[in-house]
Amino acid sequence: MAKNLHHPAREQIELSAVLEALSEPIRRDIVLRLLDEGEAPCQAASDFAPKTNLSYHYARLREAGLTRARAVGPYRMISVRVDDLAARFPGLLDAIVAAARAAKRTEDRVEASS
Known about the structure:
By secondary structure, the chain is of the alpha+beta class. The protein contains five helices and three strands.
């Protein structure tokens, strides 16, 4: 039997929890990928970290209210709660995503010039 996962209601999503969850680069990368590719199984981010570490990061994102997990057969499908985040904190997700993508481009340029 699948474990019932807690997802905070929209009005329970706290700004401090969202910012703390996104302070970790792996979790930011997971959110960026989900936003780019849409709902995906947990295994889709296996290139970011080992499975046990990913479980931890997915839990932090879910508990902060950033993502939703749903069971589909033996898999957990993960998606970003875009509508809930936009309603709770208008413009926040867009600003964080834009800043994270700009930082990635800068990192890529620095690595390419090294």
